[in-house]
Amino acid sequence: MGQKAIEIIEEGNLNKKELLEKLQRAYADECLAYIQYWEGARLPVGIMRTKLVEEMQEHANEELEHANLIAKRIMELGATPIVGPQEWLKKSTCGYLEPMDSNIMVLLEQNISSERCAMEVYRELADFTRGKDDITYKLAVKILEEETEHEQDLEDIRNDMEKIDS
Ligand SMILES: [Fe+2]
Ligand SMILES: [Fe+2]
Fold it and tell me: Are the C-beta atoms of residues 27 and 37 closer than 8 Å to each other?
C-alpha cells in the first residue's frame, strides 16, 4: 500500500471507496474479457478464420495486460483485487458472453458489443478521475484507447465478411 498514493487521492477530493469499487469492477470486466477472447479464439470456422483467431488471441493478451494494470492500481491504493470467476461475474459491468457459436459473425457481434461496453466503463472512469487522480485517469484513457482499437479491428473484419457475402 502506498501511503502517499492514498493521501494524493484523498487530497484530490475523490471518494477512495467509490474509486476502488470502480477499479474492482473494471478488473472483473478485464478478467472476463480475457477469458471470452481466449476461449472464443478456438471456435471460428470458415473463411477469415485465421485472421479472426489471430486478432482474438492478440486481444486476449491485451485484456490480460489491462487486468494487470488495473490490479496494480488497486494494490497501490491499499486494496486487493477480487479473486475468482464467481466474484468477477458478480462485480462485472459487461458480463461474460459465452462463446458457444463458431459462426464468425456471431463471435464478432459478441465481442464488438463487449468492447463497446468496455469503452463506456473507461469513459466513465476517466470522467470520475479527471483532474483528481492523474494516475488512474491516464490509465483509463490508455485502456479506452486500446478498447477503441479493438472495436475497430473487429468492425474491419465484419466489414470484410460483409463484402465476401455480397
Ligand atoms: Fe480491456
Ligand atoms: Fe478490448
Answer: no
